[in-house]
Amino acid sequence: MILVLGSIKKELVRALTSAGAVLEDVKRIVLTHAHFDHIGGIHLFRGAKIGAHKEDANAIETGDTNESMAHMYAAKMEPKKLDFRLDDGDVIKSGDMKLRVIHAPGHTKGSICLYDEKDKILFSGDVVFAEGFGRIDLPGGSSREMRETLARLAELDVK
């Protein structure tokens, strides 16, 4: 994150190193939503192509401090042009893995989940947690949309 760039960068580098990689090895980043705690560090990945759902693209590309919630971290969000925009049903391929994009509004207008149908894995961002679901009281949040999203996700076969 940009907020405490030094310590976050160190943690990112440490995590990547333990996986046998470096920042420059990351070629593509898919953002699950436009909140600062998920996007604040994207500038560290200079060579990576970065994408997000089209509904959250504006917040990222304009550096909208309110929509990104950067102000909650006493930070400023730097604008970042996206390399690609995602929509419901898009498929992202990475090696043998195929991840289907599921538009999952409720936490933000452009929240997404990524579903690997073969291995029954759901990457849920801040939409679903082990003990609940993401906040709906922030800009772009909606209780109605979250209920619809959760009903849709409940139909998935997830390990």
Protein architecture, described:
The chain has 4 helices and 9 strands, in the order αβαβαβββββββα. A hairpin with a 2-residue loop joins strand 4 and strand 5 (97-103). 23% of the residues lie in helices and 21% in strands. The two termini are 30 Å apart. It has 159 residues and is of the alpha/beta class. The relative contact order is 0.15.
Helical segment tally? 4
Query: How do the helices and strands follow one another from N- to C-terminus?
Result: HEHEHEEEEEEEH
Q: What kind of assembly state do the chains in view correspond to?
A: single chain
As laid out across the biggest beta sheet, the strand order is 4-5-6-7
Residues in helices, as a percent range = 10-25%
Major sheet details: 4 strands, antiparallel
Radius of gyration: 16 Å
Query: Which blocks of ≥5 consecutive residues have pLDDT under 50?
Result: 1-6
C-alpha end-to-end distance: 30 Å
Average residue pLDDT: 90
Shape: globular
Q: What structural category characterises the helix and strand content? A: alpha/beta
The fraction of residues in strands falls at 15-25%
Q: Based on DSSP secondary structure assignment, what is the total number of beta strands?
A: 9
